[in-house]
Amino acid sequence: MTDLAQMPDSPQVQTGARPVIEATGIVKRYGAVTALAGVDFTLYEHEVVGLVGDNGAGKSTLIKVLSGAVQPDEGEIRINGELVQLPNPKIAHSLGIETVYQDLALFEDLSIAGNIFLGRERKRFGIFLDHAGMTDFSQDVIRRLKVDVPNPKTIVRNLSGGQRQAVAVARSVAFGTQIVILDEPTSALSKAAADQVLAVIRDLKDHGLSAIVISHNLEHVLDTADRIVVLRRGQVAGVLDRNAATSHKVVELMVGA
Ligand SMILES: Nc1ncnc2c1ncn2[C@@H]1O[C@H](COP(=O)(O)OP(=O)(O)OP(=O)(O)O)[C@@H](O)[C@H]1O
Ligand SMILES: [Mg+2]
Question: Which of 51, 61, 62 to mutate to test the pocket of ligand 1 (most atoms within 8 A of CB)?
Fold first, then answer.
């Protein structure tokens, strides 16, 4: 009998786990450039996948396809086993997919709670903003995710880069999200701030979520991801289980050694 858990190079460690995203044969061309040349990508429940590759490998394009921002020329996407079309980010949201982009887009002059509820404010009697309710809910979100910030009323301008990034992650998961996609969540952060954000990402799994993390920092990827998907020139160069992955192996796949 074959025991997959004892095969160190097998990417199939999630045997028995349910796939939440199954993308097959994804092709995206920009004129003469083929950004994605037939990519298969799977994300399982309660899993963090690190997506790595050299500049121009196709990481952002793949993420945009999965978040509905870019339409593939070919390929199929299944979410929770169902074939879907993602013609825009709104539809992706409605299927539980949230993307946190590198520029964050938090509003500096609003509080943490104000940012978490931006665009989905709670009202009382249909007129008054329910500040107390929104503050309590936000407190609950940041406590659950162990986000290290003073309190939900703190104005975002007064937060550090790491705290902002953590708030952006908290906001993305606050409302029925199943899958979080993070593009370079730790770039430009100090070691301590990056560690905090990585801890928040690891905690997502305990709350039943799955995540895709793009990063050029291999240490951060090895520190967070359960599996690592390496893209090279629009193709999957390899998939490594965390236990089998070293930065040396990842770099070899990235450069095609
Ligand atoms: N809107 C676009 N128009 C034309 N070409 C594009 C467009 N977006 C991406 N590309 C091309 O597709 C390829 C993949 O780009 P992509 O942004 O997905 O790479 P990446 O892996 O995210 O790189 P980086 O690490 O530099 O962010 C590149 O050759 C890029 O020039
Ligand atoms: Mg990119």
Answer: 61
